[in-house]
Amino acid sequence: MKRAVIFAHYDKQNLIDDYVVYYLKALNEITSDIVFVSCCNVENSEKLDGIASHIIAEEHNEYDFGSYKRGFMYLLPRLDEFDEIVFANDSCFGPFHPLNLIFEEMGSKDCDFWGITKNNFGYRKKPNHFFVRRPHIQSYFVVFKKNIFTSDIFKNFITSVKHEEKKELIVSNYEIGLTELLCDNGFKYDVYVNAYNRINNITILKWRQIILEHKMPFMKCSLPRLVNKNSTTVEGYQDIIKQVSDYPVSLIEENVNRTQYIKNGRHTSPIFIKRAFFDVIAELPFIIRKLIALFIAKCLPFIRD
Hints:
Number of strands: 11
Helix content: 25-40%
CATH architecture of the largest domain: Alpha-Beta Complex
Structural class: alpha/beta
Number of domains: 2
CATH topology of the largest domain: Spore Coat Polysaccharide Biosynthesis Protein SpsA, Chain A
Largest sheet: 7 strands, mixed
């Protein structure tokens, strides 16, 4: 099995962080080629010596799918060499488990493409703030087999990626749109972590449970960076990871410190109360959760990380 990985990267300080290097080294165990595509002019690309087979670093303002497009265009003359192509990005810390075991398990599935997780909900095709049922593989890690990435359907889609003004359009047209397009044309998909299908975005709302109970190999970077503090608590995440993996959590702490996401807040609520509180909220419908999140931000700041 010969694979290529197209890895999308972005950093506000134009740096390749150590957690990214760790991730890329883990990817090297399951691939023969890593095409590293950064949406910035990286200043320390020497970190990728002996890891990435090719580096593309240029500002393009097309987000991860713009990087996936550029990596795919680079590989286009060599597609026949590969059995699988992987899209991955730097939005996750990990992996917490060997990737080769995950690929072995998913290799036995009857599917044409697969991902680590799926989201059963998404923005409407005419985006607004309301979610509808639109199942799709989450684009931080997707694996495509040869019958897909050599098809005109896939080529036309990925080469049509362009800048979008709103994040909702990026998610709707590209992340959700890709899964829907492939399914509409008869391709089948599967996911590694298939749990909590009633809940929108389990990587955020059920991050702890899927790591502990479903062998989730990643943690979204937005969690310890406290981007989602009105939706969940991440206090004690280091101990959660240490229960299942020997992943060096210092890589997460160093990144969070460098990118200045740590807040000087006080954990005034006991951790077990915060976990129970947010676990209950996660089970509620989207609209209710949205209203509660606004209420938490305004009236219950002591419950947040």
